[in-house]
């Protein structure tokens, strides 16, 4: 069973003036190393696996209810599943990738899948103990910081993709720390640095 949270106008099929969103009409080209959109850009690449592993470790350190935004190649999802957690909600917007998610999750009973844009899905989300936010071409990213207080339990661990090789506090959250991971990406079209500054935010309800 999965929940469909797609709302008309929440996607940008025609790439109109609403800003960058995934073009959901574009096919996804997949191989063992990467997935990319038909027009060329890479969405996810296997070299990111050590980063995803550390992110999964961070957000799952206390177990509990976990939220993952963006399934991609399912690398982080598989790594999250290795931890002792209570539940795992995954939101994915692209129909091809969502099919992969459905296939992968069908024999796992702690997973709830949501098809659509996470921002459109916000009213269906519960509260979590760990959150991994890793989307691509997502115009709602600036809203993420506003959602955090509404979906985080006390001490919830949150991390997200940081495309800059520095301590960049994209969501301007108080108390974010950065852990430097040494990486060796092959030449690619989105990240060619040797260090990944992984954001680590722990939510405190005051
Ligand atoms: C970089 S990939 C995620 C990679 C994943 N962490 C892994 O380990 O394979 C980004 C994913 O976010 C999805 N996505 C992009 N915008 C989204 C949105 N607004 N809501 C939900 N999913 C979105 C994309 O379709 C894609 O599957």
Structure in words:
The chain has 206 residues and is α/β, with parallel strands linked by helices. Helices cover 18% and strands 29% of the residues. It has four helices and eleven strands, in the order ββββαβαβαββαβββ. The chain has an eight-stranded mixed beta sheet. The chain has a three-stranded antiparallel beta sheet with strand order 2-3-4, with no helix packed on it. The longest helix is centred in the N-terminal third of the chain and has 11 residues, at 49-59. Residues 7-18 have low confidence and may be disordered. The structure holds S-adenosylmethionine. S-adenosylmethionine binds at residues 22, 43-44, 52, 69-76, 91-94, 97, 117-118, 134-136, 138, 140.
Radius of gyration: 16 Å
Total domain modules: 1
Q: Judging by the overall fold, what is the CATH architecture? A: 3-Layer(aba) Sandwich
**What strand order characterises the main sheet?**
1-7-6-5-8-9-11-10
> Within the CATH hierarchy, at the fold level, what is the topology?
Rossmann fold
Q: Which word captures the global form?
A: globular
Question: Would you state the CATH class?
Answer: Alpha Beta
Order of helices and strands: EEEEHEHEHEEHEEE
Query: Helix coverage percent of residues?
Result: 10-25%
Strand element count? 11
Instruction: Let me know the average pLDDT.
Output: 92
Query: Low-confidence spans: pLDDT under 50, at least 5 residues?
Result: 7-18
Note the gap between the termini: 36 Å
H/I helix tally: 4
Largest sheet, in brief, is: 8 strands, mixed
Note the beta-strand portion. Answer: 25-35%
Bound molecules: S-adenosylmethionine
């Amino acid at each position: 069973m999965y929940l469909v949270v797609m709302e008309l106008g929440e996607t940008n099929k025609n790439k109109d003036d609403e800003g960058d969103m995934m073009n959901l009409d574009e096919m996804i080209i997949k191989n063992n190393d990467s997935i990319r959109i038909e027009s060329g850009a890479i969405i996810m690449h296997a070299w990111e696996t050590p980063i995803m592993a550390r992110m999964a470790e961070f957000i799952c350190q206390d177990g509990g209810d976990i939220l993952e935004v963006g399934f991609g190649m399912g690398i982080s999802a598989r790594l999250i599943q290795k931890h002792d957690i209570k539940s795992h909600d995954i939101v994915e917007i692209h129909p091809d990738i969502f099919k992969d998610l459905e296939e992968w999750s069908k024999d796992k009973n702690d997973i709830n899948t949501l098809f659509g844009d996470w921002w459109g899905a916000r009213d269906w989300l519960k509260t979590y103990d760990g959150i991994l936010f890793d989307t691509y071409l997502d115009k709602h990213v600036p809203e993420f910081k506003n959602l955090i207080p509404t979906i985080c339990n006390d001490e919830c661990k949150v991390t997200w993709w940081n495309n800059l090789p520095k301590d960049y506090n994209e969501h301007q959250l108080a108390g974010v720390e950065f852990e430097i991971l040494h990486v060796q990406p092959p030449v690619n079209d989105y990240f060619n640095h040797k260090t990944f500054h992984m954001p680590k935010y722990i939510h405190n309800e005051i």
